[in-house]
């Protein structure tokens, strides 16, 4: 997780309804889950890289896992916000 703090919105009468905030974030969380699943299914295959040199596949694999890690970090941040909203509903 990054050093960026997940700020939880305050549900109040003059703002967006708590249910709307929750639903929007939940939808975002589901989209990130779908993106992570798609990335995992599309993992690099060594057969697609070997003509480019012996170290390229390892670099492609590292980049692939780094992208999944970044999405996982965003998902964790959204989960914290979602839980904070749920406590207010």
Would you kindly provide a written description of the structure presented here, covering whatever features stand out?
This protein is mainly alpha-helical and 89 residues long. The protein has one domain (18-86). 62% of the residues lie in helices and 0% in strands. It contains two helices and no strands. The longest helix is centred in the last third of the chain and has 31 residues, at 56-86. The model has no long low-confidence stretch (mean pLDDT 94).
Elements, N to C (H/E): HH
Q: What's the total count of β strands?
A: 0
Percent in strands: under 5%
The SS-based structural class is: mainly alpha
**Bulk shape:** elongated
Q: What's the number of domains?
A: 1
Main β-sheet description:
none
Record the SSE blueprint.
Elements lengths: L17 H24 L14 H31 L3
Quick summary:
The chain is an all-alpha fold. The chain has helices at 18-41, 56-86.
Q: What descriptive keywords fit this protein?
A:
89 residues; mainly alpha
């Amino acid at each position: 997780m990054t050093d960026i703090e997940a700020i939880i919105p305050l549900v109040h009468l003059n703002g967006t309804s708590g249910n709307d905030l929750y639903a929007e974030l939940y939808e975002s969380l589901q989209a990130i889950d779908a993106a992570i699943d798609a990335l995992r299914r599309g993992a690099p295959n060594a057969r697609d890289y070997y003509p480019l040199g012996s170290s390229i596949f390892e670099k492609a694999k590292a980049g692939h896992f780094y992208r999944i890690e970044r999405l996982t970090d965003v998902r964790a941040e959204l989960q914290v916000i979602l839980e904070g909203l749920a406590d207010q509903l």
